[in-house]
Design goal:
Distance between the termini of chain B: 98 Å
Largest interface: A-B, 36 and 37 residues
Number of helices of chain B: 14
Strand content of chain A: 5-15%
Structural class of chain B: alpha/beta
Strand order of the largest sheet of chain A: 1-2-4-5-3
Mean pLDDT of chain B: 82
Number of domains of chain A: 3
Helix content of chain B: 25-40%
Number of domains of chain B: 2
Mean pLDDT of chain A: 84
Oligomer: heterodimer
Radius of gyration of chain A: 30 Å
Low-confidence stretches of chain A: 19-33
Largest sheet of chain A: 5 strands, antiparallel
Strand content of chain B: 25-35%
C-alpha cells in the first residue's frame, strides 16, 4: 500500500515533467509542410529529392511512354524496400508497352487509365500530396509521377527481404503447430487469420511513433471481445506520445495498468495458435510491426501456468502438469526462504537425522546461511544471463562450467554447504517451468529471502500474504489480474484443465456478448451421436 | 525532483507513512520468540542425564552433544578413527537448570534442546526421589515432552559416553530402541509426559525402561534391562525383562512379542499374532478388590524344539496348554511383585476412581494396602492358527514321509 502510494506520487511527478512534450510534438512531422504535387514533373522530383535529403537509397527513374512516347513520367521507390521485379514487370513494362487507342488524352485521365487498365498491380492509390507519396515510398510502395498530372499513383510493390515463418525459439512444443510469428506485420496477421476464418475477426491499423511510424494492428473477435477493453487499448495506444516503437515491449510498457509491478500484466507470445486461442476467449491482440512477439490483453495471472500444449494433450495429464507448474512456481519463490528459516530459525521443525546432515554440511562454512544462499543465487543469475546472451555453442560451455565446476568446487572447498547448492539448483530448475514470470520470480524470491532472514517462517508467511494481497490488487485493463483463481464458473480452466467439452462458456470475466462455445454440456461418449445432433456450433455465429 | 517529491508529501502524509512504518515494525514483536541461530553456532543436545554427584549432595548434569563435522576440506587430516561421535559436557549443581546454566560457561556454542532424544536418570538418584528435579522438564520451552525417559543401571555418564558402532550417539540409539520396542507394545514407550502425569497421580506407579551399558569384547553396548518401578517419584525396585513381559501381557494391546514356554516334552517360542487383555475390576462387599483378567488371542509358532515322536494334531493342544499356563504364570508373577511393593503399576486405582468415584474417596488413603490384597484371577484362552512356513518340525513324527 505504502509502496503503491509512493509510486503514484512518482508517476505524477514524471507526468508533470513531460508537460513540455506536447508543444514539441508536431514539429517533427516536417514533411507535411512540403505541400501538394504540382504539374511539373521535374519540380516534383526535385522536391521529392529534397524531402529525402538526397538519400542514396531513393531511386528515381524517368521514362517516356504512350504510342509515340509523347508522355513522360518517373517512378520513385526506395531501393531494398520495393521488389525490383515488381517494379520492372508489373509497373514499368506495362506502362512502356501501353498503346493508347483513343485520341488525345488529358493528363488527368492518364492517371486513371494507368491505374485501372494498364498497371499489373492489386493495390494502386491515387495521391495528391507529397507527404502521402513519401509515406508510400517509405513503406515499400512505388510512386509513379506523370508530367503534367497533379496526381501521383502509389503502387504496392512491397518486397523487402524478410525472415520466413519458422519455429519460435522461445516457445517450443512437442505437440502442436510449430509456426511462429515473424518480424513482418502482414505475415503475422495472416497467420492469425488463417486460424480464425471469420469475418468478425477485426483488424484495426494504428500508426505510432513520430520518428519510426510503426504500424500496429489490433485484432479482436467482434462480439466476443469486451468492447470496453478494446476501447481502452485503442485509447491508450492512440494517445501514445512517443517517438519510437521498436518492439512490442515498448507498447507493453506504455499501456500496462501497473508499470512498476514486477509482474507482467500483458501477455506476449510468439505463436499464432496461442493468439488465436486467446482471441477466442475474448482477448485483444496487439501485433506490432518488426517483432515476432504479439501482445494479448487482458492477461490473468493464471495464464503463466497455461501452455498451448495443455489443450492439445489429455486433460488429466494437462491438469497434473499445471499443478506441477504451480508447485514449481511456489518452490522457485519460496524454497530458499524456507530453507533459511528452517536452518536458522526453526531447527526443531527438521527431523533429527536431517538436522545432523545439514549441520554437518554447515560445519566450517564461513558465511551465514542467508549470505550463502544469496551468493549461490547471485552466481546462478550470472550464469543464466551469460548463457542467454552467448552463442548457443558457447552457452553450453558456460552452463557446464557453472553446473559442474562452480557447484562442485564451491562445496568441496567448503565455501557453501551441499544442501544450499541443492536448494538453489531446485529453485533454478523450478523457475524454468514458468518461463513467463521468470523475472518477477527472481525479484520476489530475494525479497522473501530477506524477510525470512529477519523473521524466519513468520516472515515467509507475511511475505506470502503480502504477495497475495499485491496480486489481488493488480488489474490488467480493468480485469482483476488474479481472477483465474477465484471460485467462479471459470474454474474449469484454471488449476485444473477440464475436458474441452465441459468448457461450454467463454471465460466470464474476459469475454462479452457471445459467450457460448458449445451449445450443450454433453460428453462425446456416444459413437453414433454425431449424425443426430450437431452441438459443436457456437451461439451467434451464423454466417 | 526529490525536493519536489518531498514537497508533495506534506506533513500529514509523512506522519501517516511514519505510522504505517512504525506499526509494521511493531508487528514483528507479535511473533513471539524468534531468533536467528545459525546451525554452526549450536550444540545440538541429544541426551540429558541426571546423576548424583560424588561426595556431595549436588547432582551432576551430563549433556550429550551430537558432533557435527564437515566432510570437506581439511577434515581428512584431522579426522582419525579414534574420534568419538559425541561430545560430553558435565556440570554439577543443585538442580538440573543450575547445572545447565553452569554449562553455558564452558561450551563454545549455545545449547539447543529441541532435538533431545532421551532423558536419563541414574538409579541411585531415582531411589532418592526425582520429584524435585522434574520441574525443569515441565517448565522449559525447548525440551519436548515427547522425549523418552530412562533409568540407568549404574552411573549415567558411562551410558551417554558409550561409543556405539551403529548410531551416532547413545541418545539417538536409545530413542531408536524405544521406537523399535514400541512396535512390540506401546507400554515400552514411556515419554516424559507419561512419566510426569503418572507421578502426579498419587496412587499410580510409573514404570520407566532401564538401560545398562556393558562391554562385549572391545565393543561397548547398551541394553534395555527391564523397567524401574516408581512410586511417588521414588524408584522402589525394578522388573526384569521377563517380569516386564508379564506386565505387558496384563495390560493388553500386545503387538508382536515372543513368549517362551518349556515343558519336559519340548521347548517352544510363540509369536503373538493378536493378543488382547480385558480387565474387569469389581469391588467386593468387604472392601476388597477383585480383578479378573481375560487374555484372548492367537499365537503363532516361531520355533519348536523337542516333541520327539509326536504327531502334529497331538502337539497343538499340548502347545496351547503350555502357552496358556505360561501366560497365566507370567502375569501372576509380575502381579505378585507389584503387590508386595504396594505399587499400582496397572493403574487399577484410576479405574476404580473412574467407575466408583464415591467409593474411591474412601479407599484412596489406604489404597496401598488394598492393592496388596487384590484378588487376581487370570483367564487365558489362546489359539494357535499359524505355524509358520512348516507345520511339523524335523524331530516330530511324520517328518520323514509327510513333507508339507
Amino acid at each position: 500500500m505504502l509502496i503503491e502510494f509512493i509510486l503514484r506520487k512518482l508517476r505524477f511527478l514524471l507526468d508533470g515533467n513531460n508537460s513540455s512534450y506536447y508543444q514539441t510534438e508536431h514539429k517533427d512531422r516536417t514533411y507535411t509542410s512540403v505541400g501538394d504535387i504540382g504539374n511539373n514533373l521535374d519540380e516534383n522530383l526535385c522536391s521529392l529529392k529534397k524531402l529525402f535529403v538526397n538519400s542514396s537509397d531513393l531511386k528515381i527513374h524517368k521514362f517516356k511512354f504512350g504510342g509515340g512516347y509523347e508522355f513522360s513520367g518517373a517512378v520513385a521507390f526506395i531501393d531494398g524496400l520495393a521488389s525490383s521485379s515488381t517494379v520492372t514487370e508489373a509497373i514499368l513494362r506495362p506502362i512502356i508497352e501501353w498503346q493508347p487507342e483513343e485520341g488525345p488524352l488529358s493528363m488527368r485521365e492518364i492517371a486513371d487509365i494507368l491505374s485501372e487498365s494498364v498497371l499489373w498491380a492489386g493495390e494502386v492509390e491515387k495521391v495528391s500530396t507529397m507527404s502521402k507519396l513519401a509515406g508510400g515510398c517509405l513503406s515499400g510502395d512505388t510512386a509513379i509521377l506523370i508530367d503534367g498530372c497533379c496526381h501521383a499513383l502509389v503502387v504496392n510493390s512491397k518486397g523487402w527481404d524478410k525472415r520466413s515463418v519458422a519455429e519460435p525459439e522461445s516457445e517450443t512444443v512437442v505437440r502442436g503447430p510449430r509456426e511462429g510469428f515473424t518480424e513482418n506485420l502482414r505475415t503475422n496477421t495472416a497467420l492469425i487469420r488463417r486460424k480464425i476464418k471469420n469475418p468478425k475477426l477485426r483488424t484495426e491499423m494504428l500508426t505510432v511513433g513520430r520518428k519510426t511510424q510503426t504500424d500496429i494492428c489490433l485484432m479482436y473477435l467482434d462480439g466476443v471481445a469486451d468492447e470496453k477493453v478494446v476501447e481502452k487499448v485503442k485509447y491508450r495506444i492512440s494517445n501514445l506520445k512517443v517517438d519510437s516503437i521498436l518492439e512490442s515491449g515498448y507498447i507493453e510498457e506504455y499501456i500496462e495498468d501497473a508499470p512498476f509491478s514486477p509482474f507482467a500484466t500483458i501477455g506476449s507470445t510468439e505463436k499464432p495458435d496461442v493468439v488465436a486461442g486467446r482471441l477466442l476467449e475474448g482477448r485483444v491482440a496487439i501485433v506490432v510491426d518488426g517483432t515476432p512477439f504479439v501482445l494479448t490483453v487482458p492477461m490473468l495471472f493464471i495464464e503463466i501456468f497455461q501452455t498451448t500444449e495443455d489443450y492439445y494433450t489429455r486433460p488429466l495429464y494437462a491438469s497434473i502438469m499445471r499443478m506441477l507448474r504451480m508447485t514449481a512456481y511456489f518452490i522457485t519463490i519460496f524454497a530458499p526462504a524456507i530453507y533459511i528459516s528452517l536452518t536458522a530459525f526453526h531447527q526443531e521443525l527438521l527431523p533429527t537425522t536431517l538436522l545432523f546432515t545439514i549441520a554437518n554440511a554447515r560445519e566450517g562454512t564461513p558465511f551465514p546461511v542467508f549470505l550463502e544462499i544469496l551468493i549461490m543465487i547471485f552466481s546462478y543469475e550470472i550464469l543464466r544471463e551469460a548463457g542467454i546472451r552467448l552463442p548457443r555453442a558457447v552457452g553450453q560451455a558456460v552452463s557446464i562450467v557453472g553446473a559442474l565446476i562452480m557447484g562442485e568446487a564451491a562445496t568441496s572447498a567448503g565455501l557453501v554447504g551441499a544442501p544450499v547448492v541443492i536448494t538453489v539448483a531446485l529453485t533454478a530448475v523450478s523457475s524454468f517451468l514458468v518461463p513467463m514470470q521468470n523475472e518477477s520470480a527472481s525479484i520476489i524470491r530475494i525479497l522473501i529471502m530477506i524477510l525470512s532472514s529477519i523473521l524466519g517462517l513468520y516472515g515467509v508467511a507475511m511475505g506470502f500474504l503480502a504477495l497475495l494481497l499485491y496480486l489481488g490488487s493488480l488489474t490488467s485493463f480493468g480485469i482483476d489480474f488474479f481472477a483465474g483463481f477465484a471460485w467462479t464458473r471459470n474454474l474449469q480452466d484454471s488449476a485444473v484443465r477440464m475436458p474441452l467439452w465441459t468448457m461450454v462458456k467463454r471465460p466470464a470475466n474476459i469475454a462479452r456478448g457471445d459467450m457460448t462455445r458449445r451449445r450443450f454440456f454433453v460428453p462425446p461418449l456416444r459413437p453414433y451421436a454425431a449424425e443426430e445432433e450437431d452441438d459443436s456450433e457456437g451461439g451467434e455465429d451464423v454466417e | 525532483m526529490i525536493r519536489k517529491a518531498v514537497k508533495m508529501l506534506n506533513r500529514q502524509r509523512l506522519s501517516l507513512i511514519a505510522t504505517v512504518l512504525l506499526a509494521s515494525l511493531l508487528i514483528t514483536l507479535l511473533s513471539g520468540c524468534w531468533d536467528n541461530r545459525e546451525l554452526d553456532s549450536l550444540f545440538i543436545v541429544t541426551g540429558i542425564a541426571l546423576d548424583k554427584a560424588p561426595d556431595s549432595d549436588l547432582i551432576t548434569v551430563t549433556l550429550q552433544i551430537g558432533k557435527t563435522e564437515s566432510k570437506t576440506g581439511a577434515s581428512s587430516e584431522s579426522g582419525s578413527q579414534e574420534d568419538k561421535n559425541a561430545i560430553i559436557l558435565k556440570a554439577s549443581g543443585r538442580t538440573p537448570l543450575h547445572g545447565i546454566k553452569r554449562l553455558n560457561f564452558n561450551s563454545s556454542r549455545s545449547l539447543f534442546y529441541e532435538h533431545n532424544q532421551a532423558v536419563l536418570f541414574s538409579s541411585e538418584l531415582a531411589r532418592e526421589g526425582l520429584k524435585e528435579y522434574l520441574d525443569f522438564f515441565l517448565r522449559d520451552y525447548e525440551s519436548r515432552m515427547e522425549v523418552p525417559v530412562f533409568v540407568t543401571d549404574g552411573p549415567t555418564d558411562r551410558i551417554l559416553a558409550v561409543d556405539l558402532e551403529q548410531e551416532q550417539s547413545a541418545g539417538m540409539y536409545l530413542a531408536r530402541v524405544i521406537q523399535d520396542l514400541s512396535k512390540l507394545s506401546p507400554y515400552y514407550k514411556v515419554r516424559m509426559l507419561d512419566f510426569l502425569s503418572r507421578t502426579r497421580e498419587e496412587t499410580v506407579s510409573a514404570l520407566i525402561p532401564m538401560v545398562a551399558a556393558y562391554d562385549e569384547e572391545d565393543l561397548q553396548k547398551l541394553q534395555i534391562c527391564g523397567m524401574a518401578i516408581f512410586k511417588d517419584g521414588k524408584m522402589l525396585d525394578s522388573l526384569n525383562n521377563y517380569e516386564t513381559l508379564g506386565y505387558i501381557l496384563a495390560m493388553g494391546d500386545v503387538k508382536l512379542i515372543g513368549i517362551e514356554a518349556q515343558s519336559e516334552k519340548g521347548h517352544v517360542i510363540f509369536n503373538t499374532i493378536n493378543l488382547d487383555t480385558k480387565r474387569d475390576v469389581k469391588l467386593r462387599q468387604d472392601g476388597g478388590v477383585q480383578v479378573k483378567l481375560s487374555v484372548e488371542g492367537a499365537l503363532g509358532i516361531g520355533e519348536l524344539k523337542g516333541f520327539n515322536g509326536m504327531d502334529f494334531p497331538k502337539v497343538i493342544p499340548e502347545l496351547t496348554k503350555m502357552a496358556e499356563e505360561r501366560i497365566k504364570e507370567q502375569i501372576a508373577e509380575t502381579f505378585e511383585k507389584a503387590k508386595s511393593l504396594e505399587a499400582d503399576i496397572y493403574a487399577i486405582g484410576s479405574e476404580i476412581h473412574r467407575k466408583h468415584p464415591k467409593k474411591w474417596e474412601q479407599m484412596k488413603s489406604s489404597w496401598g494396602s488394598v492393592f496388596s490384597n487384590i484378588d487376581l484371577t487370570v483367564d487365558v484362552k489362546v489359539e494357535i492358527p499359524e505355524t509358520g512356513k512348516s507345520m511339523i518340525s524335523l524331530e516330530m513324527e511324520g517328518a520323514s514321509h509327510e513333507d508339507r
